[in-house]
Amino acid sequence: MNLPSPESASLPATPHINCGSPGEVSSLEVHDLTVAYQKKPVLWGIDLAVPPGRLVGIVGPNGAGKSTLIKAAMGMLPLSSGWVKVFGQPVRKSLRRIGYVPQRESVDWDFPVSVMDVVLMGRYGQLGLLRRPRKRDREIARECLDKVKMLPYANRQISNLSGGQQQRVFLARALAQESDLYFMDEPFAGVDAATETAIITLLHELRDRGKTLLVVHHDLPTARDYFDTLLLLNMRVVAFGDTDKVFTHDLLQKTYGGRLTILSEVAHVVGQRGGSAKVP
Amino acid sequence: MTRSLKFALPVLFTLCAALASAHADRIGDLGEVTIREQALRFVSLQDPTVRYAVLGSVLLGITCGLLGSFIVVRKMALVGDALSHAVLPGVALGFLWHTSKDPLAIFIGATVAGLLGTVVVGLVQQTTRLKEDTALGMVLATFFAVGVCLMTMIQRLPTGNKSGLEKFLFGQAAAIGPDDLQLMAVVTGLTLLAVFVLYKEFLVTSFDEGFARASGFPARVIHYTLMLLLAGAVVIALQAVGVVLVSAMLITPAAAAYLLTDRMNRMLWLSAGFGMLAGVAGAFFSFLGPSLPTGPFMVLGATAVFGGAFFFGPRHGLVTRWWRQRSRAQRVQRENTLKSVYHVLEGRQFQGEGVSLRELAERRRETVEEARQQAAELCRHALATLHEEGNLIFLTPAGWQLACAIVRNHRLWELYLTNAAQIAADHVHEDAERIEHVLGEEVVRELERRLDYATQDPHGRPIPSWADLRQGAAPNVRPDDTVGYGSSI
Q1: pLDDT in tens, B462-488
Q2: What is the ipTM of this complex?
Q3: Domains of chain A, first to last
Q4: Residue A95 contacts B where some CB pair is shorter than 8 Å
Q5: Shortest CA distance to B429 belongs to which of B452, B464, B461?
Q6: Chain A contact set for B198 (CB, 8 A)
Q7: Which of A60, A177, B164, B438 has a CA between 20 and 30 Å from the CA of residue B319?
Q8: Taking CB atoms and an 8 Å limit, are B210 and A133 in contact across chains?
Q9: Number of Cβ pairs < 8 A linking chain A and chain B
Q10: A109 in contact with B at a CB cutoff of 8 Å?
Q11: Quick one: B160 exposed, middle or buried, by C-beta within 10 A (0-12, 13-18, 19+)?
């Protein structure tokens, strides 16, 4: 494949998804997005259109801007250029349709709240300013806790949870947001195998219900199995498309550059399963 | 939040509103009086000075306790400290502007200086590579230095009523007047209102700011609302606690509450209560002598509350934990003694009378005196009785049951380890020694089921059955109502 040099602004040769039928509104549309930390660009000219009902894995090396991309997409960072639209609307107007699972380490797990309190926070966005959670919100929170099998822990303080349980609580909170577009920052980091399976089942279920999910993921070998769509990111969009079209040696090498250890690992995976294997 | 909040809040709020409009007489003078008279005067609350001081301390305690809780969980304790020091130049300038101790001028000056301090901290942080703690430390010291310079200048000024200004350093609750009280009531009212109305917003931004922002909450606005309230709290605390120690009134009651509960709403109430307690205690002690500073006493009061939580807190208290460990150790000791009694009885096929202290001592490889102490310990817990001039031990039904249970636990576990875990029979004793004291009934029943209701342990000794346990009162009960060990068992 003849790949363009990293310096070119557009990447004509990279596979991109056809954005469904012409009239369909993308769940997430990002145009010419550039984000800089102290004048050093972290993301550069990102163009992206994610159609509804996709489970997208965001993959790339450390410092590729994966977390930055989802934070910028939610309007949490100042943009140097470009714009973001969620369901055809500016992101500020669509926050209620966005669910978010931050990195587990981003909060203090000794905070004096119960598991139920945390999941209820998922309802806060729908409630808006000043209104308090009602009985209905508690019911929703309980249902969501049940979905991740954490209902027996509802009244525990969060510091008594294991890593996998903490991640389930965060997922339950995101479910309680009842959103159409989900951003998840490394939900598989540091969880046990049972939780990993539970999470991926849940993600597939959400996708099958027509939700769009963008999941930051740093484990390449599993990325291929978990996601139907991949976004290969390294400051720019290296490739975005169906997993079996994008998960190729050339594109991964372009994403990860000279990081040989990861590459040989990936080569192994690719060689093992062939180029067109796809998870149902 | 709890339902009690919904009832308590309007009451408190009305109280504050009423106080805000209250007017009263001039502050009473402190004459030459004894400590006892002063204490009486304080407790009777007849003197308006005392009433102002107490009310002021209560309001102050509530405000500091509520805001302090959020400061502690947001890890902003240092910010509170910096803010309190940063207000000093504002106090001095407010005084200079009016050349008298006008509470409103001082309030405005202090709030502006405090907010300016936080802005400078933010600026230093954003424009340099310095981290927050460094910026805070610098700003704190600089503002305080400027404040001290201004205060010294004012002291040298020929004009104006400058009495009481130095009280802002260490606080003087007795100097709280009706004007100060109005201001305190307003700030306390606003704080209560904010905590009540914005509880959800404060909670979510404190716990997970990123998530709060993604949910559409203006995290920065909420943060500055909290900072503004904090500045207000610091300013109303100045009169009573003084600049130097205000931060302790913010942090210490909240820290004590944090140790005692793991729910935010309970922490808020506990913290407000502790703040009130510390405030009134501080006012009381400073009242006992002429012109004693209030601040240090309030802070020490808060520290005493914290000490109480630290040592005696029901869950994490040091003494509580030590006590729990001690009683556990004693229980294990008792159970081991019972087990030894059982072994002695088993050694003679459960024949004969009670177990003598000498037999017990030999079995446990201890002196007779130690055996006597252990027997006495069993008697204290009604597990055994001593007879024949205190030389023979008889188990009570409860003692017999417990002894059987411990031996059964031990032998079941040994059997389980040898059968299921394939560990050699001579290696399982040590492990069983520990676990015999903690096995619950359900686990034991499950063990029995898995071991097919075996009756012998790996060393060939019989395992006491549930029937043995229930038998309790053995057949050869002594005539004087003492229960024996049961020779027929």
Answers
A1: 888 777 766 654 433 443 444 444 433
A2: 0.85
A3: 28-272 (3.40.50.300)
A4: yes
A5: B461
A6: 130
A7: B438
A8: no
A9: 79
A10: no
A11: middle
